[in-house]
Specification:
11 strands; two-stranded parallel ribbon; 254 residues; alpha/beta; elongated
Amino acid sequence: MNLQLVCTPNTAVQEILDIWPAFPLVVHCHYVHYPLSGIDNILAALKYRDRVCKINIENGEDLPWEKFMAVMQVPLPELTDLMLASYGAVKPVLPNTFLGGSAPRLRLLQLDHIQFPALQTLLLSTTHLVHLRLYNIPEPGYLSPTMMVTCLSTLTSLKSFSLGFTLFPLPPAQKDQPRHLSTHSVLPALTSFSFRGSRSFLDDFVSRIDAPKLNKFSVYISHQFDRDTTQLGRFVSRTPGLQAPENAPRVAYL
């Protein structure tokens, strides 16, 4: 049975939740539909940390993200789905203490226009993660291919992975060069991978992984002619699921 509580800005949510049975809570907020007074209800629901199982916060204005962050500095042990998106002028930066650095039951993580310097710490705790979607990563939130592979190598249940940058990151001066590695990190459950960014990042990333079950691969890369895509070709050739014509990688240039 699914139970949904729809509240107006004047509804006393905390009073209702205090007397209702301890049902799981789904927090859904599209700020374009919420006056500022309604945010207090969302904040009240988030304080029931042992009951919140899903969070979806999306704004098209300038949401007071600092208020949300203030109540999300502790673990949410029942949280399975987390989706955060910001389309306003301010791009939020999640603090190192976000969720207490741990989300053991998380199955879906989606961030859009969100910076999270401590992402690696959180991912190392998400041992049951199935879907990881990182969209429109701002350049200050740059993730190196090596760090990303380190994170993914612990996610043995991960089935789909999307990675996209707003500004395509340039390789750091000391960036490791892709090479033909004799061993790779294996992503045993991954079946879908989409990427948007520089081909230098992609080439470096795929040089370090194997995904034996991958059968859906979409790539949107910028025009960069600084080097060839030898590693990308090698990755495709050693991935059985991409050999069938209907599963061939879809590559587009931006």
